[in-house]
Structures are given as C-alpha cells and as structure tokens.
C-alpha cells in the first residue's frame, strides 16, 4: 500500500487534470502518513533521529494490535471444500477437469516458493504433498518451459516470454487407471 499512498496519482487513485500535479507539501504529508502506517504495521517505535515523535509511540503500539486483528480476520476464511462446494467424490464425477490460466513467470515464481517452503508445506514425510514436491525438481528457466534456446540475460524478449500465458488442465497425479488403483475404482463404482 505504501507506493499507492505516497504517489496516488501514479496509481490512478486520484484524478489530476492535465498538467496538474501534487505539490511538494502534499507529497511530504502523504509520505508522513505512509511512514506512520509502516511503523504501526511493523510495531516499530520512533527513536533516535525521530525522538520528537516519541509521544505517538503508544498510539503506534495500539495501532499495531489493530493491524494484527485485521490481518488475522482477513486470513480467517472458509475451507476450500466449503467455499467451492466440493468433497472427496467431486473429482470422480466432474466431466470436465478444471483449467487454470497462468503465466510462465508465475509458474517459475510458484515453483520457487514451493521449493523454498517445502518443509512448512509438508512437514510429514508420508504426506502425499511431499511426494509431489519431490517431483518438482529444480526451478526451470523461462526458455525451458517455452521450448526456446537460451537467451542472453539482457535480452528484452526474456521479460516478454515470462509473461506468456498458458492454460493447464488440473488432473490428479495419483489417479492411475486399472488394477493399480482399485480403491479409486471402488469409489467410482460406489458413486
């Protein structure tokens, strides 16, 4: 939120007539508001060079508690099963599999995040997600996902290639047809 507060004109939050712009004083005031919000969000008190602002440290501390309550409330969401009205049998009866649209850059970023935090995602070794994370391998390059020859790092087309959007049909990796998956066949038959 910080950049949008400091430069609302750059993010089309406010309309400014042609040739008009925020004054230096307005920008300085917006910078002060952003600084206060940043200190309140991180529970950082004004000390040292900003000792003249010590009287508002108590307010910052109470504001930090409000931020914490807000973010905890924002993270308190319905389970995916409840939100999308799915259960363990939903995948067996869907005729068309779900499709997601994602850019190559987003795939690489997601891959990196999954590898960086795999211990938090699947701490138990017998977790099926752990097996999927092991299958990921190393983070691919944009060129390897698109099937292009490697480009020099300073090539401007590299950024454009990362924005290429692909569609992925979501399937169950563990859904193996035939005798290898008798449990899934039994569920399908029961359904």
UniProtKB/TrEMBL annotation:
It comes from Characodon lateralis. The gene is IQGAP1_5. Coiled coil: none annotated. Residues 1-42 form the Ras-GAP domain. PANTHER family: RAS GTPASE-ACTIVATING PROTEIN WITH IQ MOTIF, RAS GTPASE-ACTIVATING-LIKE PROTEIN IQGAP1. It comes from the Eukaryota. PROSITE patterns: RAS_GTPASE_ACTIV_2. This is Ras GTPase-activating-like protein iqgap1. The lineage of its organism: Eukaryota, Metazoa, Chordata, Craniata, Vertebrata.
């Amino acid at each position: 939120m910080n950049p949008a507060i400091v430069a609302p004109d750059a993010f089309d939050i406010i309309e400014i007539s042609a040739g008009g712009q925020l004054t230096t004083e307005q920008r300085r005031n917006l910078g002060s508001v952003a600084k206060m919000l940043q200190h309140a969000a991180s529970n950082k008190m004004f000390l040292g060079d900003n000792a003249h602002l010590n009287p508002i440290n108590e307010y910052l501390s109470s504001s930090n508690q409000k931020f914490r309550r807000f973010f905890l409330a924002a993270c308190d969401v319905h389970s995916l099963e409840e939100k999308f009205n799915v259960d363990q049998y939903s995948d067996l009866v869907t005729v068309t599999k779900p499709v997601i649209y994602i850019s190559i850059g987003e795939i690489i970023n997601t891959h990196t995040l999954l590898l960086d935090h795999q211990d938090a995602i699947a701490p138990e070794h017998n977790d099926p997600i752990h097996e999927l994370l092991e299958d990921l391998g190393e983070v691919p390059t944009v060129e390897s996902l698109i099937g292009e020859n490697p480009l020099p790092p300073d090539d401007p087309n590299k950024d454009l290639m990362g924005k290429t959007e692909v569609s992925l049909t979501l399937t169950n990796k563990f859904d193996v047809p035939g005798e290898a998956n008798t449990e899934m066949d039994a569920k399908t038959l029961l359904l």
